[in-house]
Amino acid sequence: MKRTTSILFALLLAAGLMAQDDLGGFGFHVGFASPILRINSPTTKTLTPVPMRGMKAGFSYDATIVKGFGTTLGLNYTFATYSSKWEKINELTTDEARYRDTYQGLEIFCDWQYKFEIAGDTYLMLYTGPTIQCHLSLKEQEYIRSGATGTTTTQTRYGYEYRDNAAFEDYKRVNVTWGVGAGFQYKRYFVRGGYDFGLFNPYRKDTFRAMGIDSDYYTRGRFDQWQIKLGMYIWQN
Length: 237
Hints:
The chain is mainly β. The chain has one helix spanning 2-18, and strands at 23-40, 47-51, 53-66, 69-83, 87-88, 96-119, 122-145, 152-160, 174-186, 189-198, 221-236. The chain has one domain (2-236): Porin (Beta Barrel). Strands 1-3-4-6-7-9-10-11 form an 8-stranded antiparallel β-barrel. 29% of the residues are buried.
């Protein structure tokens, strides 16, 4: 995994350096992000997505290699969360439970893109390329509400954060995705949207039982992401 990430980082850097002779522009963007943690359900062996919702913000550097074809190299910060509804733990109790997933991450991306001019200063963009994700925090909290007293208790089920605690090391901190997408550009303004497919199993531990969940099923899954970004170039050629 580390070797693959190092090779991809070198390719991203080389792509940016190749295009420096014909600078396209430097800008910023904000938008919507939906990271999707696709996990093996402890009860069904099927991939059960946990779709989080949040925001994305970052900077991008646009460069042209030949007319129409170029690269976009950039950095994103993503924050997203998901909360389930209150549900009874089982039919023998009035206690209820709900779960809340929270994610924060940084991303270095490099997209190879082609721009079609469809009108004056108006372009259609198609792009594809890899992204290296560094997960800053990903955790799931469980809330238990007592039916008898109405009090609520909270505990962190699994995840990871910047802390020296083995209980918070259920996921790998680095992930690699491959994205495809499209967008429009009008003068300095652009919109880009697409989907990133996770290329590696995000789990560090082999079974859900090792994560504190009562199941012997093996951990398998992907960390995907929907996104749409609105941006503006601060300067261009």
